[in-house]
Write a structure and sequence with these properties.
Elements: H1 6-17, H2 21-43, H3 46-63, H4 73-86, H5 92-95, H6 100-109, H7 124-139, H8 145-155, H9 161-168, H10 172-193, H11 208-213, H12 223-226, H13 260-270, H14 273-287
Helix pairs in contact: 1-2, 2-3, 2-4, 2-13, 3-4, 4-9, 8-10, 9-10
C-alpha cells in the first residue's frame, strides 16, 4: 500500500475510532511491517514474531482512541511495541537465552564437517543465504532486551535520538551512548568470528548441513529468504545515524515483509464478533 502522510493517518484514525472498520484496517496495515520487523528482530524467529505482532496489533486497536496526535503515529506504535517486546517471555530465546560467549564457542568448536548432507537437493547457495539471514538475526538475541531494542531502533529504523529516547524513556544522550556501545559490541563480535561480515573463519556455506542438523534452518521452509523483497532491501549504511563509522559492519540488516497470514489475521479479526467486543471496550476506556 502507498505510504500515508501523518495527516492522512490522523483522518483515518478519527474515522476508525468512530467505528469505521475499513479505516481501522488501513491504519493497521500501514504499520504491520513496522510491528513485524521490530518483533522479529527482538524475538529472533518468525513464529514468535507473528504471535507477538498479533498481540501488539490488538493493543493498538484497543488503545487507538488514546492517540491524540501529539507525536507521529509511528512513534506511538513504536512505544507500544517496544514496551511489549522488552518484557515478552513467551518466545524461544526467553526459555533458551543466548550470549556472545556461547555463540562464539559454537562457531569455534562445532564439528561442522561431521554433519551429513541434509540439503534435500536445495542449492547450497540458497541455504547459505538463509543461514546468513537467520544467524545475524539470532545474534541479536545475545544482547539484553533493552540494548537489543536500542540497536534495532538506531540501526534498522534510523530513529532520531530524541524520538528514540521518548520511546524508551531515556534521554537522547543516554540513547546515543548506549547505541554506540552496542554497535561496537556487535561489530567486535562480527570482526572476530564472522567470515561473511568480518575477518573471522565462520562461513555460512560451510555450516549449512550443521545448521540443518541443529534445526537452525530447514530446506523446506526458508522463512528469511522468502520474506526479503529485493526492491526494498535496506542496508544499514543508508539507514543509520552516522555517529561513528560502523555502517559497513551491519549490512546484514534487511527489511522483511510481514507474512501474508498477519494481514489475514487483521482482516479476519475486524470481521469477527470479537472485534465488536474490543470496540466496546475501547469506547469504555476512552470515556474513563
Amino acid at each position: 500500500m502507498k505510504r500515508l502522510t501523518n495527516e492522512e493517518l490522523l483522518a483515518l484514525i478519527h474515522k476508525a475510532t468512530e467505528g469505521d472498520s475499513q479505516a481501522l484496517e488501513t491504519v493497521l496495515l500501514s504499520v504491520q511491517d513496522l510491528v513485524f520487523n521490530l518483533s522479529l528482530r527482538m524475538l529472533g524467529t518468525f513464529p514468535d514474531a507473528e504471535d507477538a505482532a498479533q498481540d501488539i496489533l490488538l493493543k493498538i486497536i484497543t488503545h487507538l482512541s488514546t492517540f491524540k496526535g501529539e507525536s507521529l503515529f509511528s512513534t506511538w506504535v513504536f512505544r507500544i511495541a517496544a514496551n511489549y517486546l522488552k518484557t515478552y517471555k513467551k518466545h524461544m530465546f526467553a526459555k533458551f537465552p543466548l550470549s556472545f560467549e556461547f555463540y562464539g564457542e559454537d562457531i569455534v568448536h562445532a564439528n561442522i564437517h561431521e554433519a551429513p548432507d541434509l540439503t534435500q537437493d536445495v542449492e547450497r547457495s540458497v541455504l547459505a543465504e538463509e543461514l546468513k539471514l537467520s544467524c545475524t538475526n539470532v545474534m541479536l538475541q545475545c544482547l539484553d532486551a533493552e540494548s537489543r531494542c536500542i540497536f534495532i531502533l538506531g540501526t534498522m529504523f534510523k530513529v532520531d535520538s530524541h524520538i528514540a529516547g521518548e520511546i524508551l524513556g531515556i534521554s537522547p544522550e543516554a540513547y546515543r551512548q548506549r547505541l554506540s556501545r552496542t554497535r561496537r559490541k556487535m561489530a567486535d563480535f562480527l570482526k572476530e568470528y564472522c567470515g561473511e561480515y568480518g575477518a573471522g573463519k565462520c562461513h555460512c556455506a560451510e555450516r549449512v548441513n550443521y545448521a540443518i542438523q541443529s534445526h537452525r534452518i530447514h530446506p523446506g521452509q526458508l522463512d528469511f529468504s522468502s520474506a526479503v523483497p529485493g526492491q526494498i532491501m535496506m542496508e544499514v549504511k543508508e539507514a543509520m545515524e552516522e555517529i561513528d563509522d560502523l555502517s559497513q559492519e551491519f549490512s546484514f540488516c534487511k527489511t522483511y515483509q510481514s507474512p501474508e497470514k498477519l494481514k489475514e489475521y487483521i482482516e479476519g479479526f475486524l470481521r469477527s464478533d470479537t472485534f465488536s467486543v474490543v470496540g466496546k471496550a475501547s469506547d469504555a476506556e476512552a470515556a474513563n
